[in-house]
């Protein structure tokens, strides 16, 4: 027996919709000038989303916007520090004037610094409290403030998606990066908190999730994981030895997961973390 739509060439309406479609979604991205963020911005624009970069580096962001536009995509840049609430509010208002809504916020801004790490020849007694505070502020408050500011129009719309960037070090504290690990663990906790906060107080159309990248080479960690000749450092070698895939991740390998989280394909997913790490977290011995 043939059901309607089983005939060759038939396309039932419930099969026609692309659940991963993000066409015309207004996606605000912090940290878009980094290696991972720039790759992400270009991809989202290729998928017909309106990409809005929030960054401090005007020259770098400007070049990225120009590159996206030259490729036929839609992109804009607003200068804002993720720790400057007033600048974020100004950027939000300008974005709303330009696009009328904010559909997705991706909190990809973050980073680390030497004083908040403990190398092999140091101990916790050598930790610089000021550096620790800076790293926690950048990664945690640099997620909290944009979330607070850009969730406001989402509550009015009764719809919106927030995607935070957590880290492998939030799941299992890694050696050395004490400040970064603590901050990213807090981001994961904040993600779960906000998922409940927004859905229960403003409706199921508001979702908050986090992505957990494994080890991807960026400008921040390249010298820590690889030597100038491309070989692994001692730490890089340990990472690869504990990664079943046997290599570092490539920036483009985050794109499918991000698009999934931006789209209706993840409509019933909130308060969770999506790990993309080549099996690092699954490995024990």
Describe the structure.
The chain is built from ten helices and seven strands. By secondary structure, the protein is an alpha/beta fold. A seven-stranded parallel β-sheet has the order 3-2-1-4-5-6-7, sandwiched between helices. The protein is globular.
Overall helicity: 40-55%
Low-confidence stretches: 1-7
Distance between the termini: 53 Å
**Radius of gyration from CA coordinates:** 20 Å
Chain oligomer state: single chain
Query: So how many helices?
Result: 10
- Give me the strand/helix succession: HEHEHEHEHEHHEHHHE
Mean pLDDT: 93
Give me the secondary-structure category: alpha/beta
Strand content: 5-15%
The shape is globular
Trace the largest sheet across and list its strands.
3-2-1-4-5-6-7
| Total beta strands | 7
Largest pleated sheet: 7 strands, parallel
List strands and helices in order, with pairings.
Elements: H1 13-16, E1 26-30, H2 35-46, E2 50-55, H3 58-70, E3 74-79, H4 85-99, E4 104-107, H5 129-157, E5 160-165, H6 168-171, H7 178-202, E6 206-213, H8 222-225, H9 234-241, H10 255-262, E7 273-276
Parallel strand pairs: 1-2, 1-4, 2-3, 4-5, 5-6, 6-7
Helix pairs in contact: 4-5, 5-7
């Amino acid at each position: 027996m043939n059901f309607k739509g089983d005939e060759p060439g038939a396309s039932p309406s419930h099969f026609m919709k692309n659940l991963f479609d993000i066409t015309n979604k207004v996606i605000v991205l912090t940290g878009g000038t980094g290696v991972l963020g720039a790759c992400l911005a270009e991809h989202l624009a290729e998928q017909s989303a309106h990409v809005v970069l929030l960054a401090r580096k005007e020259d770098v962001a400007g070049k990225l916007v120009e590159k996206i536009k030259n490729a036929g995509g839609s992109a804009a840049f607003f200068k804002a520090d993720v720790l400057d609430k007033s600048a974020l509010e100004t950027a939000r208002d300008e974005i709303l004037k330009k696009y009328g809504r904010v559909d997705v916020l991706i909190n990809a801004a973050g980073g680390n610094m030497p004083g908040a790490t403990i190398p092999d020849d140091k101990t916790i007694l050598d930790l610089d409290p000021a550096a620790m505070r800076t790293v926690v502020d950048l990664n945690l408050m640099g997620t909290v403030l944009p979330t607070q500011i850009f969730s406001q129009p989402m509550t009015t719309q009764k719809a919106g998606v927030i995607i935070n960037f957590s880290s492998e070090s939030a799941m299992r504290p890694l050696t050395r990066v004490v400040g970064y690990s603590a901050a990213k663990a807090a981001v994961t906790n904040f993600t779960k908190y906000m998922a409940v906060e927004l859905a229960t107080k403003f409706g199921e159309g508001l979702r908050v999730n986090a992505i957990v990248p494994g080890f991807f080479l960026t400008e921040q960690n390249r010298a820590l994981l690889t030597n100038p000749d491309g070989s692994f450092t001692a730490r890089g070698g340990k990472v690869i030895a504990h990664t079943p895939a046997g290599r570092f991740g490539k920036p483009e390998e985050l794109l499918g997961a991000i698009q999934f989280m931006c789209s209706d394909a993840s409509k019933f997913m909130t308060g969770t973390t999506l790990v993309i790490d080549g099996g690092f977290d699954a490995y024990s011995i």
